[in-house]
Structures are given as C-alpha cells and as structure tokens.
Write a structure and sequence with these properties.
The complex is a heterodimer of chains A (about 160) and B (about 120).
Chain A: H1 5-12, H2 14-21, H3 25-52, H4 60-88, H5 90-93, H6 97-120, H7 133-155
Chain B: H1 2-21, E1 33-38, E2 41-43, E3 50-55, E4 58-63, H2 67-72, E5 85-92, E6 99-107, E7 110-113
Parallel strand pairs in B: 4-6
Antiparallel strand pairs in B: 1-5, 2-3, 3-4, 5-6, 6-7
The chains are: A mainly alpha (about 160), B alpha+beta (about 120).
The complex binds protoporphyrin IX containing FE.
Amino acid sequence: MQAAHWAQVLQDSGFAAAIRGGAFVYPFVNILHVLAVGLIVGSIVALDFRVLGFARIVSVEGASRLLTPFAVAGLLIAIPSGFALFAADAVSLSQNKLMWIKLALIALGIANALLFRKLWNPHLGAWERHATTLAKSQALLSILIWLSVPSLGRLIAYL
Amino acid sequence: MKQWILGLLGAFALAGIAAAHHGWGSYDDKKLIKVEGPVVVLKYQNPHAEIVMNRDGKKWEIVLAPLSRMEARGLKREDIEVGKPVTVEGYARKDGTPEIRAERVIANGKTVELR
Ligand code: HEM
C-alpha cells in the first residue's frame, strides 16, 4: 500500500523522532498508555456491571460518581500517549487494519458513553432497582467495546 | 448474561485467529538464516531498531530489538554503523517480504542475543 502523505509527515516530525529516539522515551510513553488503559477499562466495566444489575447495594449514581472521573482521566491520558506511540511509527501503523478498527471502536465507545449520559444522567438517582433495557444494552455494548479495544491494541504488534 | 458471554467468546475467538496468523509465527523459525556484510541503512529507534543489508541482490530489512534491550545486553549504539560489517542470524518472513527478525547479531566482535 502507498504510504499516506500525512503519515510520512507525522513520522518525520521532530516530535515523532523524540518519541522513538532515546532508549527510554518510548517505553515510558508505553507504560503511561497501558496504565491509562487499565484505568479506563477497570472503571468503565465496573460501572457497566452495576448498570446491568450487579451489586445493587451500591447506587448507580454513587458508582457513577466514583468511577466516571477515573474513566475520563484514563481517556485523557490514553489518547495523547497513544497518539505519541502512533507518531513514532506512523507510516506502518497507518497501514495496519487493527489500528483503524481500534480507533473506530474507541470513537464508538465514547459516543455510546456520551449518549448514555445524555439519555440517563437525570434519571440515575431514581434507578434504585432497575435500569431500562436500552440502558442495559448500552452497558453491554460498552463492556464489549472496552474489552475489544485493548485486545486490538495489544494485537497490533502481531499483525 | 448469556448474550454477553457469547459475545466475549466471539471476540476472543477473533483475536485468536488474528494472533495465530501473525506474531513470531510470521517468521519461519525452522530455518536460521545468516546475513553478513555492511550495514546499508541504520534506524536506531524504538520500538525496534532496524537495519537494512544486502542479501542475494535484494535489500533486506532486519528487525533487531528495543534499544534498552540491546544496550542492556551490551550492544551499544556505536557498535553498529552504516558501512561497517555485521553478521545477523535470524528468520525470514513466511509471506515472502524481505524481512528478517534477528535472533542474534555479531557486531564489533560481540555476539549479542536479541530474543
Ligand atoms: C482510548 C482507549 C485506548 C485503549 C484501551 C488502548 C489500548 C492499547 C493497548 C492495550 C495497547 C498495547 C500496549 C502494549 O502492548 O504495550 C496499545 C498500544 C498502542 N496504542 Fe492504544 N489504546 C487506546 C487509545 C489509543 C489511541 C487514541 C491511539 C492513537 C491515536 C493509540 C495508539 C496506540 C499505539 C500506536 C500502540 C502501539 C501499537 C504497537 O506498535 O504495538 N491508542 N493501546
């Protein structure tokens, strides 16, 4: 496949050279990325299970207050660190199918979460017992997405 | 409940298929190849250093290892230079791409295992 011009420009940038240059920058950014991933997946999946009806002793609203900030912080670290890893090897990564499926799933996961908030945030307090079927389907979708994204991320290195 | 367990199994099955087709499996580790000669191109970079060498009239891309691993095993930056000879032992890609994953490299009088 022909290398996309933008990918070549990104890979040749001083920023990308700095990421792949030293012995320690890339591993450091890689660690940040993985820690952020842990933060996202752990918090979102726990909240999803609460919406599905696990651990009713905790209110949905309480779970959301505790877990949402961790998920958002994780995303805010994963996106720039992921971009840095991408930049270091942009030409070959931009031709990697799994990379694009992963990014599309991230976009879908974020859209799903935003829609969930828009639809249900005002009602969380009233959901003492049961979430609606739509909300549960969204939680299920969310679990699938946020387990698939890190799996794909790990598999990129093998393709 | 049943639905999502099935979904998960499906996702991991897909992941399994993808993994089975690639990874170290993409190199033919039944056949150790030896390449000797000068380094044509050197990319001293993460996540893997790479060099290009000539073999049978073709340019071969040779994938070494992460920089920190090479340094930890005693292969320093100045041991590999464009134009200086090195010896690489490794495995070629099964799909025919002229690319070798190095098992070990002999440079500047040192033999360094890279796996
Ligand atoms: C937001 C959720 C994300 C998750 C859950 C995620 C997950 C992962 C995981 C698990 C890895 C494997 C790390 C390793 O094996 O050391 C990885 C690697 C990587 N990620 Fe992400 N990632 C996310 C976002 C991003 C974004 C937004 C980008 C790019 C803009 C990105 C680019 C990369 C790259 C380039 C790698 C290295 C791939 C390689 O060369 O092996 N990630 N990611």
